[in-house]
Design a protein that fits this description.
This protein has 100 residues and is mainly alpha-helical. The protein has three helices and no strands. It has one domain (10-99).
């Protein structure tokens, strides 16, 4: 059975990985909006090429976030990375629903 300290470290590893992925994604989004690559915030982005660009860097950032989860996990690094993926999937689905 996991000790309370190990549970907090597990939650912290998952939280850190998610925060890294979100922060990098939003930071890159903001830079691309400021450079006028993306349309202003609040306007839809219909171009497939821009959506592919967003998908490509978000995939890289989320892989990095999963690596961080696994690296800081107290045990079972793959389980932590998968748990982070499940946790991240829920808001991603909600975002797709809101965007359509």
């Amino acid at each position: 059975m996991a000790t309370p300290r190990r549970g907090w470290r597990s939650a912290g590893a998952i939280f850190l990985g998610i925060i890294v992925g979100v922060a990098l994604s939003l930071g890159t989004d903001q830079v691309l909006h400021v450079l006028h690559v993306y349309p202003p915030w609040g306007q839809p982005m219909y171009q497939a090429s821009l959506n592919l660009l967003a998908l490509s860097y978000r995939l890289v950032y989320n892989v990095l976030g999963s690596y961080i989860m696994a690296r800081f996990a107290p045990s079972s690094p793959m389980r932590h990375a998968l748990a982070g993926g499940v946790v991240g999937l829920i808001p991603s689905i909600a975002g797709v629903i809101v965007a359509t």
